[in-house]
């Protein structure tokens, strides 16, 4: 399950992806449109800025815009930035591997074998789905067809 913070980050990025590439979007506009608490959104966008996903501009015409193209920002990348490791078990994490405390051996762990397939399938979807896929109706249709195949 993803956190509310991750959902807000993805929704904010969708707004930025739909905006003109050269036109910053004010935090207050994103917050109002997506019903995200403004202070919380400020923290999220600042975190995404530090990771090179968005840029900010100051002043009267200021706001946020995508630093990378929407088709180069994956759901998996954003979830890792906002929520941390994606794996359902610490022993399956690519970025934060840790042996389970009660582990007798990863090769013989029945639970690990099942959740390894879950983790692989989840990563495949999350790292092949971009923000552009989420906001483009034609891409959404292709994505749904691909997932159902």
Key terms:
about 150 residues, mainly alpha, two-stranded antiparallel ribbon, 7 helices, about 5% strand
Description of the molecule:
The protein is mostly helical and 149 residues long. 53% of the residues lie in helices and 5% in strands. It has a two-stranded antiparallel ribbon. Strand 1 and strand 2 form a beta hairpin. Helix 1 (4-18) crosses helix 2 (27-34) and helix 1 packs across helix 3 (38-50). The protein is elongated, with a radius of gyration of 18 Å. It starts with a helix and ends with a helix. 19% of the residues are buried.
Question: SSE string, helix = H, strand = E?
Answer: HHHEEHHHH
Radius of gyration: 18 Å
- Helix run count: 7
The stretches of 5 or more residues where confidence is low (pLDDT under 50) are none
Task: Quote the average pLDDT.
Answer: 88
State the end-to-end CA separation.
Answer: 24 Å
Describe what is shown at a glance:
The protein is built from seven helices and two strands, in the order H-H-H-E-E-H-H-H-H. The protein has 149 residues and is mainly alpha-helical. A two-stranded antiparallel sheet has the order 1-2.
